[in-house]
Structures
1.
Amino acid sequence: MATPKLKYTTPGLTEEKATRVVELLQDRLNATTDLHLTLKHVHWNVVGPHFIAVHEMIDPQVDAVRGFADDLAERIATLGGSPIGTPGALVEARNWDEYSIGRDTTQAHLGALDLVYQGVIESYRNGIQELDDLDLVTQDMFIAQTEQLELFHWFVRAHLEDKSGALSTAGAGSEAEAARQAG
């Protein structure tokens, strides 16, 4: 979906720069909307001996990531854009596959989430770099959200590493492969 022409933007930011910032924000809005729904899906579908620990670990992540989506949408509006939050638009715009794990063990889901978080964090870091020349206010938002996402990723990875620090998901190229390796 194309970014509509802005009617205005915030003082000190050119329309051209604001348009690109809105595109970056919309991409992260799509990612965080997808992530908080994926995390809730995991919350509902984990089973096994560590069920309650993972079930309860995931909910605060859902709430935080849902808050990130709201902040991103409000920043889009602040810059004169119109945030797009419909499911169809998200599916049309995303460049990642649907989360592929259904009812499964906590380890399988955490293995898959390891790859999910890797992708989300990498795209945030790419945005941070690009925002360095566009808008430091939005860059600051991306940095703060990345810090929290990296913390959540560590929570997930702590369940996947052995005492030497080796991850059970090392080298996995897909969620399904990471789930198998972790399980």
2.
Amino acid sequence: MRVLHTSDWHLGRTLYGRKRYEEFEAFLAWLAETIQQQGIDTLLVAGDVFDTSAPSNRAQQLYYRFLCQVAASSCRHVVIIAGNHDSPSFLNAPRELLKALDVHVIGSRCEDPRDEILVLADAQGTPALIVCAVPYLRDRDIRVAEAGESVEDKERKLIAGIRTHYATVAALAEGKREELGVDIPIVAMGHLFTAGGQTLDGDGVRELYVGSLAHVTAGIFPTSLDYLALGHLHVPQRVSGSDTIRYSGSPLPMGFGEAKQQKSVCRVTFDRDAGDSRAAAVQLIDVPVFQKLERVTGDWDGIARCLRELSASGSADESAIWLEVIYAGEAVIGDLRERLEAAISGTRMEILRIKNNRIIDRVLGQIHAEETLDDLNVDDVFERCLAAHEVPEDQRPELLAAYRETVSSLTEDDVQAQ
């Protein structure tokens, strides 16, 4: 039995306003081809299929076309669980129809835990794998709130709820294996945050519960599991050094902080002919780069030099490189954007974000010791900018009015987009 573990597709996600459908389409085409080439029997998608609970028509189209393509391939089963970004009801809506394609969807915790236990058969119809398809467990699924409870009480209840749920489904899976009378592997899925898990700046990974509660340890998972396929963290990684408890990571970089990260999916093989038919052999399969991202940081001379090197390294048939530029020089450059646009003119580079740390430092430097940025509203920050740049007092009211009009316009656009 060959299993492919992936997660955190985030179909429909944008990057600083830029739509990424071509990247998602290229990834799904590559994934379908990889499934065929690798002879994959079962595909596991460990949550966050979509980036929002109300995905666009284009994102839905990519999802359903991919499922139809995989259903027509050598892959016999697809198991999908919801993540914290997904709408349980949206994912569950076509589940009965998708069952006809051997696509199993678990959008939320089932009232009967037995419904999260799937027995998957091989090409001969013989049971070959048991999957405990545990979706993202929401707070209300695993904890009863009580008046007056402390943060520690909430954390203890959350951890206990997660532990109990996994113990329950694992015990049911073991019972099902005994009932079948065949010694087949048990694989579990989950979408959660493990203690010590690695994240990166700007990767979009959210805390799942209040604050940083319920960063679970590997010790809460039953030892009867032969492999645990996790989602939520975007960096591919093992949990507590275990080869069989893994995050596959997101297949595309979710932000510029992941620009240099090698993305991958996990191929997990269970060999009946080996000495231990339940031993998992894990191999990472690298995901190609479908859109090149680069983060450029430094003073002006360093940034200009890096832009020249990037321009010289590209070939004519390559797609445009998306850039994030972080200016960290000492000198104040008022025309930074104009300089950057001139530097990339005629190249296949496009700047999606400019962060001027020098300006930020000057503004934040105006904040009193007892203040934080959260204590200031958008008008306060703009007024601090005016003061930091020593804009004459008589010019400030007109500039502030224009700024407020711009902010109001942006807010209205966001509401309409939603």
3.
Amino acid sequence: MLDAVSLVIENNEFFTLLGPSGCGKTTLLRAIAGFEQVDGGEIRIGGRRMNELPPYARNINTVFQSYALFPHMTVEENIGFGLEMKGVDGDARRARVREMLALVKLEQLARRRPAELSGGQQQRVALARALAPKPEVLLLDEPLSALDLKLRKEMQVELKRVQQEAGITFIFVTHDQEEALTLSDRIAVMSAGHILQVGTPTEIYERPRRRFVADFIGDINLLAGALEQGANGDALFRSDEMQIRIPCELADRVVPGRRHLAIRPENIRRVAPGEAHQLQARVENILYLGTATLYQCRTGNGTRIQVREGGSLAGPAVGDPVALSLPPQACLLLEG
């Protein structure tokens, strides 16, 4: 169920609907496609109202999780099927199929059938088939979810390339935060039928406006406390364990009261004993991630703090005390 959703998606934009299962992102996609009827407002594509039009009358195509390729048809026949249904003549249809085969780099596999293709190749065929009729908008409902991790990352790069070369608006649904950050021009983060924030990947990751958005996108530390008015227009955040002065440019939109201070694990620094710091904690667990090491720490009051550093294992051991510095410019003050 959707509640007062309002969006403007630009022409030729790669726009992602991101959120947990059941948040309404697929419902919104189906409403755009015409498979769900809206009980208020308008859906417009290219300035034209879509509300009363059935799905087949909207210049939209969809790529689903299941590619639904015709097993008895070759790759080129699958790609050309939609064009044939639209009455495109043979020469024009074959030319467009060749164009799509080149776009998805499957020219050498044109005569194969789906059972002879890998998962990634089948995904490319489904994408080419959807793009062949030149839709104004292409809807993609978690099309990479069935692929293994390595192939999924490869296909993310290919999907972005295809979108840029095709020059078509893509509306992409996923619950994978990394996938959304990698692919998107802009992201809409959804929860319980609402859109909580729309922005570029950088804005969503580095400047989330709500606690849910900050917590859903990547790892983040959240500390409960109170915000007080400080001198010179800045603000003072206090908790039972620390206080930190927040510059006015980061605090001017948050009124005093109970708030959460948020900071990404990579922005916290371990400092030497005696150096200025805001938190004292003890290492509970160490996770080596290849490109980074994640220290899971806990303060004396039981607050869990994560610190991410470079890939080396050199550092404190489990049980060691650590002094942590939280740079004010890397801190966020969140409502909700």
4.
Amino acid sequence: MPFIDVGRESSGPIQLHYEDHGDGPAVVLVHGYPLDGASWEKQEAALLAAGHRVITYDRRGFGQSSQPAGGYDYDTFAADLNQLLTALDLTDVTLGGFSMGTGEVVRYLATYGSDRIARAALLGPLPPFLLATDEDPPGAPQALFDGFASAAAGDRPAFLTGFLNDFYNYDVYGGTRVSADRLRASWNTALLASPIAVVACIQAWLTDFRDDLPRIDVPVLVMQGDQDRILPPPATGERLRTLLPDARHLSVEGGPHAIIWTHADQVNQALLEFVVVK
């Protein structure tokens, strides 16, 4: 079970757990909140079958990675990703993020550049900026996110139940595109995450990525469900059509936030086409 050290807290190291499978061109996948690297299982299977090397990892605070008391911000998340790419000496990488993981992709490229990265995929994107302000009204008010954080801190299991129902649009796709077993497995994974991380990452969602986006100089795929309840397209993906005009933009009809599971065939086809683009 491989780990890399990305820092220290008190008497012990902060470690990221990662999985590294297959041979061929490397694809590094960054998971969404509140799951872990294993949530990419359908994409990993498709990419491995197509002859790619696939690396997934658990963000600090989630999965089998360390659960420190701090570092739940995008500068730190991007630094963790940089340490992983450096430790594995990866180049010509397709860097893919889902949901919260799209923030790592954007902040990494803006901070560390594209020397190691050939292209980037943003699935269910978080950028550019979720918080509504006077000068940038799209988005949601601070009170909404304060409410999320309060709910997560007050009764984390109940918060996760509601969040995951909207994550999958379970009222629409329960029993068809997502089973009760999958919903329960996601809840079990989420419940094992650091209680501190589950709350602190809600504040990280409010990171302003608008200055990061112009620094991206690799081909980009943006893909999102048009029924995304977690990161609604008018505040996220639709704004990226203007801010990343050269990207390939795909909308999944009827897709919820969790398109990597509910609409995996469409996502996988788009990814496989994208990773061979030169």
